[in-house]
């Protein structure tokens, strides 16, 4: 196996990487973003299993949006609602 790197290919790859990193990506405001269960769990600092079994089913937790993709159902939550819910819980603990 030849482990030498073609300099021209390396330069081209670096140029492409620079272009990709320099291209601005649209910023989606928090009130328009959706998170899946894993992202919600990560934000709240719990496991995905704990999130789905304990938190997502809580009556005061924001309702999920069901996004049907073929035969599966993908639940998503509005980021702004999750953040407000977490902030409100934190305020209750302080009181």
Automatic annotation (TrEMBL):
UniProt name for this protein: AlpA family transcriptional regulator
The species this protein was found in: Vogesella indigofera
């Amino acid at each position: 196996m030849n482990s030498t790197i073609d300099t021209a290919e390396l330069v081209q790859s670096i140029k492409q990487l620079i272009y990709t990193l320099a291209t601005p990506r649209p910023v989606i405001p928090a009130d328009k973003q959706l998170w899946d269960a894993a992202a919600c769990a990560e934000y709240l600092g719990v496991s995905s299993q704990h999130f789905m079994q304990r938190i997502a089913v809580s009556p005061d937790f924001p309702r999920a949006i069901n996004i049907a993709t073929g035969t599966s159902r993908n639940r998503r939550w509005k980021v702004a609602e999750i953040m407000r819910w977490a902030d409100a819980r934190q305020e209750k603990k302080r009181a």
